[in-house]
## 1
Amino acid sequence: MFKYIFLCSIIVAAATGLGINCRGSFYCWRGADIQNIKSYMDGLIDNNRDYNSGENIVCYRASEEETIQSGFCLFLQNTKSPVKGGRIFDLLNHLIDHGCKGCGSVPIDFPESNDPGNGILTMNYVGGTGACIGLC
């Protein structure tokens, strides 16, 4: 799982310095749906749970076929400390309010700061969702 997060972080490395944005992998236009991610989290995420950099928070597969493991995940990148589930849900809503329909990233200190220096929350294509379908 970590190697897929690592590969995904390489894909969006250019986006990490941008602040809030709707960028992501080439595959984002082929099925990424940020509202789908939100529906998996809405009312289900533990607001007090800590999430760490590189950890999948919520995922869904790009296809209904069991053999296809690729999909879209929400995860943190380059954070120095854990981020609470409630904060992650708020950040996801900022991405939606920004106009992101598929993939995107938002600094964890947004809206107070648009500087990604303390890390970002990212929704992007991953080569493998692992065992995570829905809330991880």
Note: The chain has three helices and seven strands.
## 2
Amino acid sequence: MQRARRRRSKMGGGMYQIEEVERSADYIDYAVRQGGDYSVRIRLLVQNYEKYQTTKDYAVIVKHPDDFFAMIDLIRSIVPKTIFEFGIFQGGSALLWAKLFGARYCGLDALPDKPILHEWVQRLGLSEQVSLNFSSLQNDKAKIDHLFSTHFGGEQIDLIVDDCSHVYDWSRQSFEYSFDHLRPGGVYILEDWHWAHAAGDLWQKERIWSDKKALSNLLFELIMLFGSRPDLIERIDIHPRYAVIRKSATAPRIGPLSLDDLILKQGRIFEPI
């Protein structure tokens, strides 16, 4: 059974169509067409994530199918002109967001460079739009500041996505270093905050990543920041696998954040689990 969705983008190439063309136990393939012309084939992985890599025939995204379409609708509602993403992985989302929405995209990842992605960028005519920065850590403040300065000219941007290591400490630092680069009214998306609480043997019996602090700790802290500084955060929408943090429309520009200093706790100690 094929599933097709059509949406009119307010950025980029107008009408686009996303149509399911192949399905297996491991993945769902979607053909993305824009203005009637074929743009890119997306391979959406649902399991065995290390088995597949982006090739000349398709670009890989790892995401729950429901979240894939929900994210498209969410980003479409933001109408972003500028996007920064922690976590490129196989690069499918970088290509998709830039192509569908005509946004300037900058991403970083600790993984080594993937030449095939640069080929895709050229093939799709995105060389002036897309900046892919590999071998880069998400908690490297100097690198983050450099990318915002060089790719966005130091201007605050519309959308930041953290879909990187899912490690609490690093994701916390990413938020502290980058939130001031987000424009008032802009959106920060924290993906996979739920991993320590996900059902299934991999997470609850094999207890993968049980030696790491749960990423949900960061979400708890952002809720506390919301209560302490509503002038910085306007609202938080929590979904089963991602959270959407909207910056206040009147948020002041205060430089890098310190959650420890900004969150009011009546002198209590927050101990991450």
Note: The chain is about 30% helix and 30% strand.
